[in-house]
């Protein structure tokens, strides 16, 4: 009887650890997602402004410490590409987030069940 | 009574939402609100910065160069000069820069300001929601602490009637029938009420329509008769004006209207006299225009006495030579316009502000009565004789 309870407790501990890890992952995912969302907003703003610029306007891109002159069309294409990339990334993050949340829920259920079993076992032991 | 006990469930609120939990929830929401408030403050700072920047950018091209202190390193400044004040290198975001003029920059900044404003608005909405949530949690916590109970009772009319059938048909048949009858009556009553209300509304509508029609008719009649009177007046006035024009010297008319309203016998300084003569000569070229406009323009009612007055004046001084300064002076002194002032006072002036100043007689005719009306009262109050109308043009010169 005692060994069973001990084993169950060990199991519970490991499961709780897993759950913690999952929760941390989800938090990290959220943060990354937030960053990407902000970047997406910024890039969309840039795209809007680039569309509004004159055809012969000088456009520069800051690369490291230098401003590199760029063609307006080129800059436009670059920003578009970047927006596509960020959108794809966001989608990917959404998928992983969903996955992680599912895992988290299943782990939570498992932990809850284990706790109940331990409790019932302990109660039985007390009676006995 | 037994049935009721079966139907309803009583749960104390504190068992559903423990007071501590509710408190914790409300605290968490408060914390979130605090976070959002910080964010809002930051955004508001951005908005303020943005508007300041817009002002600065708009001001910069006012000068060709600005003397400024240029930051050098972290702690040092040295005097410098800002040139090319209409060229900005604007950061569009994500490392992209663009050469822009002041105007374009301001446009970009304004768009950015709009974005910020929308963000502020959405944040405000979120905060409102959170506040509502917090107040809900607070009240829940309070109620739970007070020991409020929640009584839940399923509302199922059909179930109860079914049960009644099962338990005893005789006992419950009569109240049931009553119920049904009552329901039917209720329906009928409601229908009748609705219909009567509709009828009422219809009647009101009809009444309102007929009323408004009558009003319209009356109004149009009134205005028409007014207009007719006006027309008659104008015809009279026009007749007077035409007689003016028949007079060979149109200058006189112009001159008289330009004369300042000063009591007669008052000495004039040389300056004004020369001004008059200047005015006179200046307007000499407008005569051909004026004579046509004189007849063509619609005269307001209060214009009439003025026209008569002019006729009188002109005729009383037929030999005057308006091109001579002495003549001008004589005219100034010899023009009595008591009739003008009085009559103008009695009639309400029509002020037409939409007419722009053209320097021709047409413009003045509309403004003139107003001026003379306002001034004649003042001159009368001071005890001096009412004098002639003054054009706005003249008043500005004084």
TrEMBL record, chain A:
It comes from the Eukaryota. GO terms for cellular component: cytoplasm; prefoldin complex. CDD domains: Prefoldin_6 (cd23161). Keywords: Chaperone, Coiled coil. SUPFAM superfamilies: Prefoldin. One of its GO terms (biological process) is chaperone-mediated protein complex assembly. GO terms for molecular function: protein-folding chaperone binding; unfolded protein binding. Residues 83-117 form a coiled coil. Gene3D superfamilies: 1.10.287.370. PANTHER family: PREFOLDIN SUBUNIT 6. Belongs to the prefoldin subunit beta family. This is Prefoldin_2 domain-containing protein. It comes from Cephalotus follicularis (Albany pitcher plant).
From TrEMBL, chain B:
It is found in: Nucleus. InterPro entries: Prefoldin, Prefoldin_subunit_alpha, RNA_pol_II_subunit5-mediator. Residues 372-390 have a biased composition (Low complexity). GO terms for biological process: negative regulation of transcription by RNA polymerase II; protein folding; response to cold. Residues 310-324, 335-348 have a biased composition (Polar residues). PANTHER family: RNA POLYMERASE II SUBUNIT 5-MEDIATING PROTEIN NNX3 (PTHR15111), UNCONVENTIONAL PREFOLDIN RPB5 INTERACTOR 1 (PTHR15111:SF0). This is Prefoldin domain-containing protein. Residues 207-247 have a biased composition (Acidic residues). Residues 156-184, 248-260 have a biased composition (Basic and acidic residues). It holds the Pfam family Prefoldin. Keywords: Nucleus.
């Amino acid at each position: 009887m005692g060994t069973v309870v001990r084993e169950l407790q060990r199991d519970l501990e490991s499961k709780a650890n897993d759950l913690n890890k999952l929760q941390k992952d989800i938090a990290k995912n959220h943060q990354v997602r937030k960053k990407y969302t902000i970047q997406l907003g910024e890039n969309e703003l840039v795209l809007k402004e680039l569309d509004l610029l004159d055809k012969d306007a000088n456009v520069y891109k800051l690369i490291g410490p230098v401003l590199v002159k760029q063609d307006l069309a080129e800059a436009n294409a670059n920003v578009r590409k970047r927006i596509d990339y960020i959108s794809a990334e966001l989608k990917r993050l959404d998928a992983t987030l969903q996955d992680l949340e599912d895992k988290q829920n299943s782990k939570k259920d498992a932990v809850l069940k284990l706790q109940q079993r331990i409790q019932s076992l302990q109660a039985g032991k007390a009676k006995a | 009574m037994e049935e009721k006990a079966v139907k309803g469930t009583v749960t104390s609120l504190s068992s559903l939402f423990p007071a501590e939990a509710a408190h914790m929830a409300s605290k968490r929401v408060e914390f979130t609100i605090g976070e959002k408030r910080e964010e809002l403050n930051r955004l508001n700072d951005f908005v303020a910065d943005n508007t300041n920047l817009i002002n600065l950018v708009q001001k910069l091209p006012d000068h060709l160069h600005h003397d400024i202190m240029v930051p050098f390193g972290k702690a040092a400044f040295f005097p410098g000069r800002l040139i090319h004040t209409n060229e900005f290198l604007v950061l569009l975001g994500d490392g992209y820069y663009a050469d822009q003029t002041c105007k374009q920059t301001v446009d970009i900044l304004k768009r950015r300001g709009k974005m910020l404003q929308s963000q502020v608005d959405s944040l405000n909405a979120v905060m409102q929601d959170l506040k509502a949530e917090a107040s809900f949690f607070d009240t829940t916590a309070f109620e739970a602490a007070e020991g409020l109970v929640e009584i839940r009772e399923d509302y199922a009319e059909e179930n109860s009637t079914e049960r009644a059938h099962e338990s005893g048909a005789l006992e419950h048949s009569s109240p049931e029938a009553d119920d049904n009858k009552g329901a039917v009556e209720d329906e009928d009553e409601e229908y009748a009420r609705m219909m009567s209300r509709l009828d009422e509304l219809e009647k009101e509508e009809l009444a309102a329509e007929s009323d408004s029609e009558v009003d319209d008719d009356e109004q149009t009649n009134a205005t028409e008769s007014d207009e007719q009177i006006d027309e008659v007046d104008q015809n009279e006035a026009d007749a007077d004006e035409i007689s003016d024009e028949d007079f060979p010297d149109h200058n006189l008319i112009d001159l008289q209207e330009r004369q300042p309203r000063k009591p007669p016998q008052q000495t004039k300084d040389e300056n004004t006299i020369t001004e008059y003569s200047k005015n006179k000569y200046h307007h000499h070229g407008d005569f051909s225009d004026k004579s046509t406009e004189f007849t063509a323009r619609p005269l307001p009612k209060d214009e009439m006495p003025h026209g008569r007055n002019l006729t009188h004046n002109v005729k009383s001084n037929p030999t005057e030579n308006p091109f001579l300064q002495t003549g001008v002076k004589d005219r100034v002194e010899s023009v009595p316009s008591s009739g003008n002032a009085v009559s103008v006072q009695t009639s309400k002036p029509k002020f037409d502000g939409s007419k722009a100043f053209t320097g021709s007689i047409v413009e003045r005719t509309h403004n003139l009565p107003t001026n003379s009306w306002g001034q004649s009262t003042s001159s009368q109050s001071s005890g001096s004789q009412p004098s002639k109308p003054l054009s706005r043009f003249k008043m500005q010169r004084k």
